[in-house]
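Page 37, continued from 36.
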């Protein structure tokens, strides 16, 4: 992913400050622990990289919105999004771990927690846990319509989170299925999601439009690592005008209904705007 790097906490603060100066209002944090284990225990460690970075960002950068990804895949030794028994992810136990990870982010100062795991019932569990612990003002941005996509490859390599066996078809959405995406979004809104997300963005613009039109809720779209890297590679080979296609894709995502866009092009686009 050209131009995208793993950062230490102090480097993340510098990068976020520069992004804020360029006009980027928010950052989305992902974490890489020093060690991984079968249960992803590092996800809720108050001294883990994400929690430490939240505190540093809120201390150093005024008015920056800090969003955190909530999942176990970056923390598990097997690369799956939850607790595994045999070849299966155990949904309810996983949800308990996710709620504790989200709470640790909220306590550290996150403005928005963003569960990306696609486990059943996790939004309700996170909302209940946050409210019970006095974090009722922490918002939830749910990866509500997250498809089982081949466009996640560059991120998974960078985060060392590729599943060591099997895949994520049991909980992520079938690319051919529209109705299930609508049901998942509806459930997450009912469970307390403040923002719903469609991921990836470009191959699912029709889903994005349907979600926005049907539910009229704050809606995000994630232009994922493969989308970004694909444009970068084509531009480096001289096949595309990168600036032009960057804006064309971002405009297309916005036109399809996104109120907010998560993109690795954020700083570059903001500077040009």
């Amino acid at each position: 992913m050209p131009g995208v790097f793993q950062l230490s906490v102090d480097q993340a603060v510098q990068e976020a400050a520069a992004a804020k100066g360029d006009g980027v209002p928010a950052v989305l944090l992902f974490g890489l622990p020093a060690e991984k284990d079968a249960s992803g225990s590092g996800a809720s460690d108050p001294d883990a990289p994400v929690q430490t970075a939240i505190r540093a960002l809120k201390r150093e950068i005024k008015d920056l919105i800090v969003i955190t990804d909530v999942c176990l895949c970056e923390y598990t030794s097997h690369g799956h999004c939850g607790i595994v028994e045999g070849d299966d992810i155990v949904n309810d136990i996983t949800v308990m771990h996710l709620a504790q990870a989200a709470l640790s982010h909220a306590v550290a100062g996150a403005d928005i927690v963003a569960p990306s795991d696609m486990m059943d019932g996790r939004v309700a569990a996170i909302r209940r846990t946050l409210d019970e612990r006095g974090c009722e003002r922490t918002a939830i941005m749910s990866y509500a319509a997250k498809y089982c996509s081949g466009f996640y490859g560059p991120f998974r390599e960078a985060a060392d989170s590729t599943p060591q066996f099997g895949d994520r078809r049991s909980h992520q959405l079938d690319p051919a299925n529209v109705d299930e995406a609508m049901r998942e979004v509806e459930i997450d809104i009912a469970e307390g999601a403040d923002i719903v997300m469609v991921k990836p963005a470009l191959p699912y613009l029709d889903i994005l439009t349907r979600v926005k039109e049907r539910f009229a809720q704050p809606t995000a779209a994630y232009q994922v690592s493969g989308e970004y890297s694909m444009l970068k590679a084509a531009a480096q080979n001289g096949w595309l005008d990168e600036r032009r296609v960057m804006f064309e894709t971002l405009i297309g995502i916005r036109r399809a209904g996104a109120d907010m866009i998560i993109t690795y092009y954020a700083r570059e686009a903001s500077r040009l705007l």
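The CA atoms of residues 71 and 117 lie 5 Å apart. Flag for discussion at group meeting. The chain has ten helices and nine strands.
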